[in-house]
Amino acid sequence: MPNVTLNNDVEIPILGFGVFQVPAEQTEQVVTQALEAGYRHIDTAQGYQNEDAVGRAIAKSGIPRDELFITTKLWIQDAGEERTKRAFDTSLRKLGLDRLDLYLIHQPFGDIYGSWRAMQDLCRQGATRAIGVSNFLPDRLIDLIDHNEITPAVNQIETHPFFQRTVDQDVMDKRGVRLESWGPLGQGRDDLFTNPVLSGIAAAHGKTVAQTVLRWLVQRDIVVIPKSARPERMAENLDIFDFTLSLEEMARIATLDTGASSVIDHRDPDVVAWMGSRRFD
Predict the structure, then answer these.
(1) Is there a contact between 243 and 215 (Cβ–Cβ < 8 Å)?
(2) Active site residues
(3) Rounded CA separation 243/246 (Å)
């Protein structure tokens, strides 16, 4: 699995496995299957309510800790300096780990500055190898960077052929922040898997649409974390390193960008209020 290097020289596998919306009762089995398929980068979150199941799968796998890259995220209810430290300890305990590889602020709401101060301390202490954010739009990201000592290593945002985030990526590249894609397959919306442009390119390479999309993201130097509960799909999503999309094919995919989310608008006041009201204990 190819790695890319973050802004603090930590290496992260460019392709990982996400567990968003995997039911807690299925997570241990699904993560076990992902690890058996060859994934070594696992992405979870406090808000997914399945950290403990991820931890059990890791413990049972027998894979040496230094071969794994584990990410989890802080939810809004625990924003703030002291609460962040407690939430971090809780996540670490649930995962059964003595350190994280990457810890993210999950949403750009609440006391993100207090949280970031705590996360900087955790990073300096070696409790986590890198820290970053998720769902930060460019203005919020730059403000956080300019008023703190540690620049986020990662910004994990919705990125797929219908929402390509090229402007966001340009801003991040200039500031040394790695774009990581959540929902790289558009969560199956907007007929992505039957799109004629993607289907035609996939057929030309003897690959599936999913493989083509993941390859397109990797060629943009974007870290991807696809999710699947089916072992055959897990293996398929890993099998993207034996072909290359041409510049012409990349340009054709670029025409699919709508510039809008398929899932959620983080500038919608109702979305902000709804997220702030959600609690995960």
Answers:
(1) yes
(2) 48
(3) 10
Q: Which two tokens stand for residue 44?
A: 């979870």
Give the Cα separation of 254 and 4 in Å (integer): 23
User: Counting runs of H as helices and runs of E as strands, what totals does the chain give?
Assistant: 11, 10
Structure tokens at 109: 């709401």
Tell me: the pLDDT tens digits for 161-188? 999 999 999 999 999 999 999 999 987 7
215: pLDDT confidence band, cut at 50, 70 and 90? very high
Flag whether 266 is marked binding.
no
Joined together, the tokens standing for residue 42 give 């696992």
Are 42 and 16 in contact, with CB atoms under 8 Å apart?
yes
**Backbone angles phi and psi of 102, in degrees to 5:** -150, 130
> H-type helices in 62-178, by residue range?
81-95, 112-125, 138-146, 166-175
Domain 3-276 has CATH 3.40.30.10: no
CA distance 77 to 72: 15
Q: Which residues have C-beta within 8 Å of that of residue 57, sequence separation ≥ 6? A: 27, 28, 29, 30, 31, 32, 35
pTM: 0.95
Q: In whole angstroms, what is the distance from residue 234 CA to residue 254 CA? A: 26
DSSP state of 65: G
Dihedral sign of CA atoms 168, 102, 245, 33 in order: negative
**Would you tell me how many other CB atoms lie within 10 Å of the CB of residue 263?**
12
Which of 46, 54, 102 has its CA nearest to residue 79? 46
